[in-house]
Design goal:
This protein is an alpha/beta fold and 271 residues long. The chain is built from 13 helices and eight strands. Strands 1-2-4-3-5-6-7-8 form an eight-stranded mixed beta sheet, sandwiched between helices.
């Protein structure tokens, strides 16, 4: 994180933790959801490399990382996170922008692109955005891990190669999970029926067809919580300008397991 500066900004009365740095074309990074998730947690292995080539802005979604938490329902608030991302776009310079969204925020990135012609490039990894049946791996991912063993087990659900779940990754998540009040808040956020949460992030076909940006969708072949054939492959068939990359020996977190492939794709797309 050496090339990125931490700064808090105000959005709609919420304090939002941002990471900014680099020079070049503006690039917005949007992280996924899950216990202990944050912008740094999702993108730590590619942050510095991206900031060598782009003007990067990342932020913790409200309720995650260093950003404020909501005080009233709904705590799983796709519409609020979408509005937050729209606000972040307004902080970025230039007439055109690129967006990189992971998991739930892949759907946010696509929705932004459908509404904002200034977004000319979109990269998604392990994205949601269409309805698919909730499976046990996703239920585990969206459950609060009480013990360290629970954290390890939930984290291993996200990857193909368990060796990437190292002490640096675990300590970052554990620090956030042990924040006072986090367990109660997280339990409220994901306490509803998980299928209804997936459905809130669904984009209809008419929205997807409005996207004129160039889109590349990357997805791990071994993604258990969000299977590629039920999400990315379905969305990719609808988008007008879309390439799909299925990564072998990879789970739900391409930026963790195959950062070099994600960075190579980003360079080709965003330049």
């Amino acid at each position: 994180m050496s090339r990125l500066l931490q700064r808090d900004v105000d959005f709609d009365g919420y304090r939002v933790r941002t990471l900014q740095g680099g020079e070049g074309k503006p690039l917005l990074l949007l992280h996924g959801t899950g216990p202990g998730t944050s912008a740094f947690g999702n993108f730590s292995r590619i942050f510095d490399h991206l900031s060598e080539h782009y003007s990067v802005l990342a932020a913790d979604l409200i309720g995650f990382g260093g950003s404020d938490r909501k005080t009233e329902e709904p705590f799983f608030d796709f519409d609020l996170w979408h509005r937050q991302a729209t606000f972040l776009l307004g902080l970025m310079p230039g007439k055109t922008r690129s967006v990189f969204g992971h998991s739930l925020s892949g759907a946010i990135a696509l929705k932004l692109a459908a509404e904002n012609p200034s977004i000319t490039k979109v990269l998604t990894t392990g994205t949601l955005g269409v309805r698919f049946p909730v499976n046990n791996a996703l239920r585990l991912t969206w459950s609060y891990p009480v013990s360290r063993e629970d954290i390890v087990r939930a984290s291993e659900t996200l990857v193909f190669d368990n060796s990437v779940i190292d002490e640096t990754f675990l300590s970052n998540r554990i620090e956030l999970l042990r924040t006072p009040g986090y367990q109660e808040y997280f339990s409220k956020m994901f306490g509803e029926d998980h299928q209804s949460l997936v459905d809130r992030a669904c984009l209809d076909e008419s929205t997807l067809r409005k996207i004129t940006a160039d889109v590349v969708m990357m997805h791990g072949r071994e993604d258990r919580p969000v299977p590629a054939d039920q999400t990315t492959l379905s969305i990719g068939k609808i988008l007008p300008n879309c390439d799909v990359s299925i990564i072998g020996r990879c789970g739900h977190s391409p930026s963790m397991e195959h950062p070099e492939k994600v960075l190579g794709t980003a360079k080709l797309l965003f330049n």
